[in-house]
Amino acid sequence: MRIPCPFCGSRDASEFVTIGEAGAPRPEPAAPDAAQNFFTYAYLRDNLAGPGEEYWYHAFGCRSWLKVLRDTRTHEIESATLAREGVR
């Protein structure tokens, strides 16, 4: 699988590390049920079949965080953008 890095061009997936789906809101650590919320956040992800956004880190390249739109059934990548571009 090749990932189109905005800085480095098309690179092999072995240069990247993924942390999974993008967009899942991080739980509030001060909430009374924080332990259960973090367990759910870390271990009970949906794992949907089809297109989804994921965070990938270009560890052996430019060391940028990317948001990649990838189909989990075919591994076809529709787009890859810098993760910080979606943060306000």
UniProtKB/TrEMBL annotation:
Protein name, as recorded: N-methylglutamate dehydrogenase subunit B
TM region positions: none
Taxon lineage: Bacteria, Pseudomonadati, Pseudomonadota, Alphaproteobacteria, Hyphomicrobiales
Source organism per UniProt: Methylovirgula ligni
Gene Ontology terms, MF aspect: sarcosine oxidase activity
Any GO BP: tetrahydrofolate metabolic process
